[in-house]
């Protein structure tokens, strides 16, 4: 038997209420802040990710799903959401609109990671981006939205970690200092950090291995190397978050897994035990659009993993509204009743009443068992006598009361949806 590929999963009907809940809250948030939806393709030219996310990051070196199509073009399944949004921004000339352009997306991302709870090879991200403006007020807006989104879902056990990693002018000096610091202790570093030291030194700060902790703890702080402009930007972000009472923790070791960030970086961490703690992350990426061939265009954004949000909602036992379900099940007995049932179902659906009609030739008991398992509020039963009288038996499946009702009165009665007396 075939099974879903390792690290991927089916989202079964009973799970869908969580997805709808999260997606609706996401759309609602974006509407509130003026972000418009954008859907990009599932696969892109693999260079789009390789160039922007950059070598030396796990995402590009180890995790991308790349393949050649029949024409020999090298493609990659969407590894993250930001680079495709920037590509679309350039491709469709969105830079000609008044800036910033505010966009959001919801869709799958693919990463060849070691699957575990909260970490999958196909996961889904909700992300939003504000493109074309360097105002630190946008960094604040993007962080505020992340906080408001999680609160609107009913999640409260999280913290916001904040840092600035400078710009293309001040960051290189810091990286030099970091390399110097780490080079002194290079022999003690874990194998991954030995590679990071050569290829992606900022990521050294992110290492969780015990052997690298003491070197990381005594490492120079990026905030001591920020140029005056980056310093002022960072101060402004912090002051405005404080002004809005949005709690955050400064974390000088916070760097993001993707290479394109500049200035503000932030992560939202869950404080729930036993889940993957990173709920979402984002920051500024003022050079990314230029890297893709556009003009220098500052931008800032955030992305969160929907599966992780749902895991947290379940752990916190958050009440989720149930998906709407059909109100009635139509059962029948005999050939004429079967036709009458089909006509009735057609008429009810035409006036917007959702019903499920029995099929086949199950016994009435079997049909009612099906109605029970579907938890419809009512069953409508049509037999030979009912066909003759143009009536049906309407049964309240909750209190088990029933009465005969003319076929023409079924729709108004279901619309009222009152318990039968
Ligand atoms: P990133 O693009 O790495 O910043 O990821 C954004 C968010 O997506 C993370 O904070 C997680 O919530 C989620 N995420 C990233 N990778 C995975 C994964 N492999 N499985 C599930 N969720 C993920």
The spatial strand order of the largest sheet comes to: 1-5-6-11-10-9-7-8
Radius of gyration: 28 Å
The description of the largest β-sheet is: 8 strands, mixed
Q: Provide the low-confidence segments as ranges.
A: none
CATH-level-4 superfamily name of the largest domain: Bira Bifunctional Protein, Domain 2
Bin the strand percentage: 15-25%
The CATH first-level class of the largest domain comes to Alpha Beta
Bound molecules: adenosine monophosphate
Shape: elongated
By DSSP (H or I, 4+ residues per run), the number of helices equals 15
CATH architecture of the largest domain: 2-Layer Sandwich
What oligomeric state best describes the polypeptide chains here? single chain
SSE map:
Blueprint (H helix, E strand, L loop, with lengths): L15 H18 L2 E2 L5 E3 H7 L5 H6 L2 E3 L5 E4 L4 H10 L9 E10 L11 E10 L4 H18 L4 E7 L6 H14 L6 H9 L10 H8 L10 H16 L5 E2 L11 E9 L7 E7 L3 H4 L7 E7 H10 L12 E5 L2 H16 L4 E3 L6 H10 L4 E5 L1 H6 L1 E6 L5 E5 L3 H7 L5
Parallel strand pairs: 1-5, 7-8, 12-13, 12-14
Antiparallel strand pairs: 2-4, 3-4, 5-6, 6-11, 7-9, 9-10, 10-11, 14-15, 15-16
Helix pairs in contact: 1-5, 5-9
The structure holds adenosine monophosphate.
Brief sketch in words of this structure:
With 421 residues, this protein is of the alpha+beta class. It contains 15 helices and 16 strands. Helix 1 packs antiparallel against helix 5 and helix 5 runs parallel beside helix 9.
General description of the model:
With 421 residues, the chain is α+β, with helices and mostly antiparallel strands. It folds into two domains: 13-170 and 226-315, Bira Bifunctional Protein, Domain 2 (BirA Bifunctional Protein, domain 2); 328-415, Rossmann fold (3-Layer(aba) Sandwich), CATH 3.40.50. Helices cover 38% and strands 21% of the residues. It is built from 15 helices and 16 strands. The protein has helices at 16-33, 46-52, 58-63, 82-91, 136-153, 171-184, 191-199, 210-217, 228-243, 288-291, 306-315, 335-350, 364-373, 384-389, 410-416, and strands at 36-37, 43-45, 66-68, 74-77, 101-110, 122-131, 158-164, 249-250, 262-270, 278-284, 299-305, 328-332, 355-357, 378-382, 391-396, 402-406. β9 and β10 form a beta hairpin. α5 packs parallel to α9 (228-243). The longest helix is centred in the N-terminal third of the chain and has 18 residues, at 16-33. The chain is elongated and about 90 Å long. The chain starts with 15 loop residues before the first helix and ends in a 5-residue tail after the last helix. Bound molecules: adenosine monophosphate (AMP). The site of adenosine monophosphate has 18 residues, from β6, β10, β11 and α11.
